[in-house]
């Protein structure tokens, strides 16, 4: 099938088939995000039952990120070679096994192993969806459909807040993870049985040639102009929202557990809004000639301003600031669509997983590193963590984002006229 007929097939894709593509992958990402942030609510239970400190709590929670990241480059090759349906449904079985191990663990080691398997098992939930959308949807629809996919993750984050807190009145954290193991198997079956199969055009590439495609991506100036900024922004968002937002609300804002769950719910709701809103804004402005990368950079700058106010401990605005954190923290996802359109379509899986590799390695380091920094200060008399530790940890992440923003502007100025801008038979990229 040539590119024009491939595009025509996407133009006439029925609404029913679009739903069959979108919904199972959206459920997978819902689950992935639920796993990612649930420890923000469960942290007090884990710490009290197993007697772990902030550094260990950061490590066991961040274990999700390191195995997630470690599989991104081979995942890109596998997605481009075998397709998103088969790969995601297979990997989700490992997530189910990890959740079961986590639910039975009696030590930090057991929790880390379970959490690591969960990260490995959900490592395809976003990238498989992005690959499927490139195959099935028109390119101008990608920012919006990607935004809806991210919103599904936001609903996972919503479920991991007040609903999980309410569920703790019925069962404990072990019961929650056992239920999640069953749900993981159900979604794996849905992806495999419901998503239609799409023939992957291989161009006769061998494994060696596909690995060469990874080198092509990572040697591109276009990639390195954009990637550091979105990586640092997403790493900060994932590390803080996925764990340290809850303890901050307890130790800095002074909220009780019920109020913390409510604020975490508000953050997740803001994230859902942000994913849909920012995707729609990027799509609408692109029709008027304003490139999506400009929307992304403006949003990430607003995200940094919000973090600055949290570092300054403007606690009277705590609820509003965390809502803004949830909205603007989503803008770091827009460059995924930008970059995937900056390379030939057969490299799209490797482009997105290349960015994701960097994001999740940095998120692992950030989530654990913030815990290590917090641990440098003695705990409070109430059993919490010292506020200056949060200031130092959050300030570290803000500084890295500012350096990445500076690099983006420098690289944009120094970039040659063609900027390493790649084209294929779809025409020039939109970066």
What does this protein look like?
By secondary structure, this protein is mainly alpha-helical. The protein contains 19 helices and 2 strands. A two-stranded antiparallel ribbon has the order 1-2. Strand 1 and strand 2 form a beta hairpin. The longest helix is centred in the middle third of the chain and has 31 residues, at 221-251. The two termini are 27 Å apart.
Task: Considering the chains and any ligands shown, give keywords for the structure.
431 residues, disordered N terminus, 2 strands, two-stranded antiparallel ribbon
What's this entry about, in short?
The protein is an all-alpha fold.
Write the layout of secondary structure elements.
Elements: H1 3-11, H2 15-37, H3 39-50, H4 54-70, H5 72-82, H6 84-104, H7 108-121, H8 127-136, H9 142-159, H10 162-167, H11 173-194, H12 207-218, H13 221-251, H14 257-287, H15 292-311, H16 318-328, H17 334-340, H18 348-374, H19 387-414, E1 423-424, E2 427-428
Antiparallel strand pairs: 1-2
